[in-house]
């Protein structure tokens, strides 16, 4: 009789626990999004990205990340990368464009997007990816940053350094952030001013970004680069416009937005292409 309640409890717990994640078909797509509740890798049939040669003003970062990714795709040593800096300057676009440029010659190269709020589940995701050694995975975390009371950054260390298992050889992490150290500057300054041992407290906060082998900085563009980006889009999509009109409209557009970046350049070009009846 004692076993009956125990059996019922065990059965109830088994019903509550999620079913084991089935091995996904990685040949179904080259891009996936990690979802939780339940855990699954959703294939992305069409990735939203721009061609690599349309990303202007980021030549050094482009060449460095492209070489690093090509090494990884070939099964050679490569570094995790943190793309940080000014918003709208093509950090996430560069990651997606590089994957798009290399997936043609390296069919096994996949990209998996991991949302910041799902970082606590990263261990389960790594276990799934580890079981597919025939593929190479870029684990992509966009717009990564942490607030004062956010402990998710500790989960990220499992990807960068790993525990006793280590990071799978077929996984590399590319993250983008507006912050060089992934945390607010005032958070680091407060640690310096209020901690019993300031140097140790600050080291704990900045050590996460130190775990990225590549730091690629993105800085605000000047006016010539901004206009050059738009002119490059016009040439690529066959939109004809004279220089004086382009200059006047593009400058007015960026003035009304209060900022100048690659994102603003693309937004103006989308408006221009629509007015000229050109489909993108």
Set out the fold topology.
Blueprint: H1 3-16, E1 31-35, E2 40-43, H2 59-73, E3 81-85, H3 91-102, E4 109-113, H4 122-130, E5 136-141, H5 153-160, E6 171-177, H6 185-194, H7 198-210, E7 214-218, H8 223-237, H9 243-257, H10 262-275
Parallel strand pairs: 1-4, 3-6, 3-7, 4-5, 5-6
Antiparallel strand pairs: 1-2
Comma- or semicolon-separated keywords:
280 residues; alpha/beta; Rossmann fold; 2 domains; 7 strands; 13% strand
The name CATH uses for the topology of the largest domain is Rossmann fold
User: Any idea what the radius of gyration is?
Assistant: 23 Å
Distance between the termini: 71 Å
Mean pLDDT: 84
- The DSSP helix count reads 10
Overall tally of structural domains: 2
What's the count of strands?
7
Overall geometric form = elongated
According to CATH, the homologous superfamily of the largest domain is P-loop containing nucleotide triphosphate hydrolases
Strand-pairing-aware structural class: alpha/beta
The run of helices and strands is: HEEHEHEHEHEHHEHHH
CATH class of the largest domain: Alpha Beta
User: Main beta sheet, described?
Assistant: 7 strands, mixed
Q: Quickly give the CATH architecture of the largest domain.
A: 3-Layer(aba) Sandwich
Low-confidence stretches: none
Output the strand order for the largest sheet: 2-1-4-5-6-3-7
Helix content: 40-55%
Please state roughly what percent of the residues sit in beta strands, choosing from under 5%, 5-15%, 15-25%, 25-35%, 35-45% or over 45%.
5-15%
């Amino acid at each position: 009789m004692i076993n009956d309640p125990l059996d019922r409890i065990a059965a109830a717990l088994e019903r509550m626990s999620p079913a084991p994640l089935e091995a996904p078909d990685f040949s179904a797509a080259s891009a996936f999004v990690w979802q939780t509740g339940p855990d699954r890798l959703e294939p992305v049939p069409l990735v939203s990205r721009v061609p690599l040669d349309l990303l202007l003003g980021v030549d050094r970062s482009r060449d460095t990340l492209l070489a690093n990714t090509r090494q990884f795709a070939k099964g050679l040593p490569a570094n995790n990368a943190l793309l940080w800096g000014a918003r709208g300057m093509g950090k996430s676009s560069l990651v997606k464009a590089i994957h798009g440029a290399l997936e043609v010659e390296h069919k096994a190269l996949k990209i998996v997007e991991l949302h910041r709020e799902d970082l606590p589940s990263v261990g389960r995701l790594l276990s799934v990816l580890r079981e597919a050694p025939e593929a190479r995975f870029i684990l992509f975390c966009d717009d990564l940053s942490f607030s004062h009371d956010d402990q998710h950054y500790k989960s990220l260390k499992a990807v960068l350094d790993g525990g006793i298992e280590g990071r799978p050889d077929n996984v590399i992490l590319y993250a983008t952030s507006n912050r060089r150290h992934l945390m607010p500057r005032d958070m680091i300054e407060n640690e310096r001013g209020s901690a019993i041992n300031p140097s140790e407290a600050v080291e704990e906060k900045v050590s996460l970004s130190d775990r990225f082998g590549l730091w690629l900085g993105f800085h605000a563009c000047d006016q010539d680069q901004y206009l050059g980006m738009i002119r490059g889009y016009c040439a690529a999509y066959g939109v004809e416009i004279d220089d004086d009109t382009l200059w006047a409209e593009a400058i007015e557009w960026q003035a009304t937005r209060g900022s100048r970046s690659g994102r603003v350049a693309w937004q103006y070009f989308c408006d221009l292409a629509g007015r000229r009846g050109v489909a993108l």
